[in-house]
Amino acid sequence: MSLPVFVLNLPRDGARRERMTAELARVGLDGHFIDGVDAGTLSQADWDRYDRSRCRAIYGVDMLATELACYLAHERIFRKIVDENIDAALILEDDCQIANDLPSVLDALMATPPAARLWQVVRLSTMREGKISAQARRLRPLRRLGDDRGLYRVHTHVLGLQGYVMTAAGARRMLDYGRKIFMPIDHTLDRYWENRITPFIVHPCPVVHHDEGHSTIGERDPRRRTALGLGGRWVRRVNRWRDGVGKRLYNALHP
């Protein structure tokens, strides 16, 4: 498989790097580790890109420093893809588990010539397995990727970036759309009605979250939304309604 493989990993987390090295070797993939961004090293310039008012109006809470760092880490790979004129790359987070048939799935996916691709990004994992499975059961796959998996154009947000294939066109769109950061990276990619990156996914997913690993993002206070106040909650409700309209319109125009 000629598709470059980039794995995000914080330099201080050697255990995850070792586990992912073994995981890649197990399925015959050779990965290049890209340093993640440590939340403790975020600069003022990094924070200046954060649009707090838009985040609270749409996302409903402030982004955590770890979420901003995670965004910047993925963006680092997007820039590498664009700067080095890479056609497409497999991007993995270091807390994932890989199916044995991932290389053959990727070979089948990349067999489509670039000019004939309908997609700019293909998700290989999801944090909304129930919702995505329900949609996949109702849809016919655009392409079979082996005996058990298929490529689907879904009509909802996917959530999670444990594994995905990113093209240069998709990377450029994400860099342009994310000049100001207002949501975590997976939520930002999921706003397809704004960023124009139609959601595609391989299902059943060949990449899943490795449950034994601890999250580096951290937990939120369950009372976090009440901090918005009544006015803030109404603003968010209106924005969610607007997003719903935008999503339905995009899906109608791009079935």
TrEMBL record:
Pfam families the record matches: Glyco_transf_25
Stretches assigned to the Glycosyl transferase family domain: 4-188
Superkingdom per UniProt: Bacteria
This protein's UniProt keywords: Transferase
GO molecular function per UniProt: transferase activity
Designated name of the protein: Glycosyl transferase, family 25
Species of provenance: Rhodospirillum rubrum (strain ATCC 11170 / ATH 1.1.1 / DSM 467 / LMG 4362 / NCIMB 8255 / S1)
